[in-house]
Design brief:
Blueprint: H1 13-23, E1 28-30, H2 32-45, E2 50-55, H3 67-78, E3 82-87, H4 109-123, E4 132-136, H5 138-153, H6 158-161, H7 165-172, H8 179-195, E5 199-203, H9 207-219, E6 226-230, H10 256-264, H11 268-278, H12 283-294, H13 299-315, H14 317-331, E7 341-344, E8 349-350, H15 351-357, H16 364-372, E9 376-378, E10 381-382, E11 389-390, E12 393-399, E13 403-409
Parallel strand pairs: 2-3, 2-5, 3-4, 5-6, 7-13
Antiparallel strand pairs: 1-6, 8-11, 9-10, 9-12, 12-13
Domain RNA-binding S4: 349-410
Subcellular location: Cytoplasm
Protein name: Tyrosine--tRNA ligase
Length: 410
Amino acid sequence: MNSAAVTNFPVTDRVRQALAVTLRGVQELLPEDEWLRKLARAEATGKPLRIKLGLDPTAPDIHIGHTVVLNKMRQLQDLGHTVIFLIGDFTSMIGDPSGRNTTRPPLTAEQIKANAETYYKQASLVLDPAKTEIRYNSEWSDPLGARGMIQLAARYTVARMMERDDFTKRFREGRSISVHEFLYPLMQGYDSVALQSDLELGGTDQKFNLLMGRHLQQEYGQEPQCILTMPLLEGLDGVEKMSKSKNNYIALTEDPNTMFAKVLSISDTLMWRWYTLLSFRSEAEIEGLREEVEGGRNPKDAKVLLAHEITARFHGEAAAQRAREDFENRSKGGIPDEIPELALSGAPLGIAQLLKQANLAPSTSEANRLIDGGGVRIDSSVVSDKGLKLAAGTYVVQVGKRKFARVTLA
């Protein structure tokens, strides 16, 4: 093992502050004492630590739940350490078995390439691209070859591999486990050897794979990495983890007005969790806000600040300010400055049919349900009559708080 790992350097106030930044919002940091020594060494020698995040580009788009771990990378990047954004183009061809009860279908090289380009472009909205090292694990995995793969596999036992919860469960239930799935954690661990990483980040479901990297570095005579897991972010409902399938997510590609409004829709309780995991404000600032709210300040004020910060991060300050003004205008019953305009024919046209044709409701039955709920307005007046027919003319149609259209009916 590298002798520098066991050499004690002074733990200064700056080192303690770096540890506090590291620990903010984390699920686990293992081993914490080793990470403190690494930070002290980096401070004393001026040599930045190497911090790795590996992501398999299994889908092209990411939502703000995915940015929790990217935010942590940015915080460590701002402390002066080297951030490595590792794209698992090789490991994607195996398929990560973490949390799976069936074999994950592998992606094609074309899918991986397309997804990786989109993923990194979106991740760059959080990371500082000028200070980010982008790597692909095919760089060292392809040259390993069959001989190297066998030698690597010899460094881990089947018994230890079967300690994985997902493998154990599938084995007990008689579900198939393909031999190639054992290669995934081995190859992810080998990435840490190839990159000589000091710290690897991941979600809580990646703990086994992260520890594999630590084990293999020791096998290859390297100083072992520390591992840091981040919790999964609850979605808009405050219950389930953020997920597209649960429709409780905010995509990074959402328009600014929608993003701003969605953040404001979360509960006052969930807001503080989002502040910890998504905001770049200091913990002291967040605690100050919390005290003000507990002292009587409207929690909406704090939520507006969070919505503004998140929207500005992905769309810029000017867009965030416009989204804020738009939301305030709509909350007072006003109409946004820019709304879709479209022309329809068939006057006189029934209100439910108009809502469907204007893409403000998916069907006439849903349109009628919205009318029953008082969620439809024509020129700022609530529509209560499902039998309403509109004559030729131009109308501002509103559904709910966020959907508007200026419809010219002929």
